[in-house]
Design goal:
Layout (H helix, E strand, L loop, with lengths): L2 H7 L13 H12 L10 E6 L2 H9 L11 E7 L6 H16 L3 E2 L7 H7 L7 E9 L13 H4 L6
Antiparallel strand pairs: 1-2, 2-4, 3-4
Helix pairs in contact: 1-4, 2-4
Bound molecules: flavin mononucleotide.
Length: 159
């Protein structure tokens, strides 16, 4: 699958099949993150891979939505830099696209109780949880939500 096809096919998936992700595919996803660019190549990020069903349920309960624990893998994306660290979001974006190429779905999650997640996963005080990414085989096939036209999103030479 070429990159543009993965970009077009990617949807936020909020229902997952009860099907595990193989270690081989998981390593591929994590490698996509490893290869992402970061400012000055500092790589100020860390992903926590959560597969344990009990922990997934606890994480689910620390989120505003109830589908997150159904995903066989939840990535918890952390930054040692800032709460909305750009570096970490690029890492996660790389992973979402490779996930599509592997037939997987995912969903960015920003609505969660950060203190609760930090407590559950022993995340140190100075580390920020930037987002969560549940990943699994999609059990839904949502339409693409409408995008603004390029004419509204892009200007040339000046704002
Ligand atoms: C930074 C960011 C935060 C998001 N947070 C949530 C969230 O907390 N819960 C959720 O269900 N979707 C969340 N989303 C998914 C968006 O709702 C979704 O990307 C948007 O509606 C467009 O749909 P699409 O991803 O299928 O193209 C988030 C997306 C981004 C990029």
């Amino acid at each position: 699958m070429d990159v543009m096809e993965a970009i077009r096919k990617r949807r936020s998936i909020r229902a997952y099949k009860n099907e595990p992700i193989s270690d081989e595919i998981l390593q591929k996803l994590l490698t996509a993150g490893q290869l992402a660019p970061t400012g000055n190549n500092k790589q100020p990020w860390k992903l926590i891979v959560v597969r344990d069903p009990e922990m997934r349920k606890k994480i689910n309960d620390a989120c505003a939505q109830d589908f997150i624990g159904d995903a066989p893998v939840i990535l918890v994306a952390c930054s040692s830099k800032e709460p909305k660290d750009m570096n970490t979001t690029i890492v996660v974006d790389h992973i979402t696209l490779v996930a599509v190429a592997e037939g997987l779905g995912s969903c960015w999650i920003r609505s969660f109780d950060e203190a609760k997640i930090k407590e559950l996963l022993d995340i140190p005080e100075e580390i920020h949880v930037v987002c969560l990414l549940p990943i699994g085989y999609p059990a839904e096939n949502p339409e693409m939500p409408e995008r603004k036209p390029l004419s509204e999103l892009v200007s040339y030479e000046k704002y």
